[in-house]
Please model this.
Amino acid sequence: MGYLLEINIMNRLLIALILAAPLAAQSQVTVFSDSFSSSTVNSLTPGAPTANSTAYQVIASKAWNPNPPTITAGDLKYGIAATSGGGVEAQALFTATPVTLASAGDYVKLTLTFNNTVGVLNIPSYLGVGMFNASQVLPWAGGLNNSANNANSTAVTGGAQNWQGYVAQIATAGLNSRFMDRKAQTGPDNRNQVAVISGSAIYGPSTPSPVSIGTSGTGPSVTLALANPYTEVVKFTLLGTGALQLDSTLYDAGNNVLSTMSATTGTTPLTTTFDALSIGWRATSTASVTTLDISSIQVADFIQPVPEPSTLALAGLGTAALFIRRRRA
Model:
């Protein structure tokens, strides 16, 4: 009885010591926060990303509008001219230290705040927000104006060609919203640089084409008012099975939920490491330009904490002490 009492007391002391020992911070960490005060757009000599800046490249299948895209404090503005069909996106690395999801519950989250200036999710269109493993390869320097399509082959390799990841694609009301994958591209033309646009044999990735994750449907689709601010949050969470849970929620200025969707990848996702983003849209059947003004982009992550060495040492000492007591008994 005395031996059991000693063991019980030592177990309690050990637990108390471990709980009191410092752990690595267990909270969400902001990886990247950009309000565009020092970032660049379409630079021919792009710099590496920092915690508050990066080099955006605008990739478009039709002519830029405005031309060129502009960037000032609190405003990244880009779009395309009036077209019966076309796509545009802004791509960038968001960190020089890729985020790797390793334990169940780890996540990476992108928060986008934008103003629907003209046409996006107002006329028939699809807004795509994606995160990717770029292996630190920068997007195409200088961007692509009126050439991210199957009629041009100046940007077949390099840039975003081998980026892999997932995209939340919200559609105008009545059209299908979905999550889709984006695999490394092996095609013969500039569509290899497209990451978040789909649904066209002219200006979407085609070799291979995107595949829907889960189901797609009109339920989460919306029509946005012009010149109103909106926020979209896209989050990728690692599950215990090894799969990724993909979540997207779109809010209006009053923080009301306009669209929400979720999907789960297979147990061997394309990647669980992320260092790049792309935000863009496909416009269809419109005589109007489509333009977006982005006011901020933030990427945060949560990675399970690792015990400090002192905590592990305490655990080791406690185990040793218990072993010694057992041997003496």
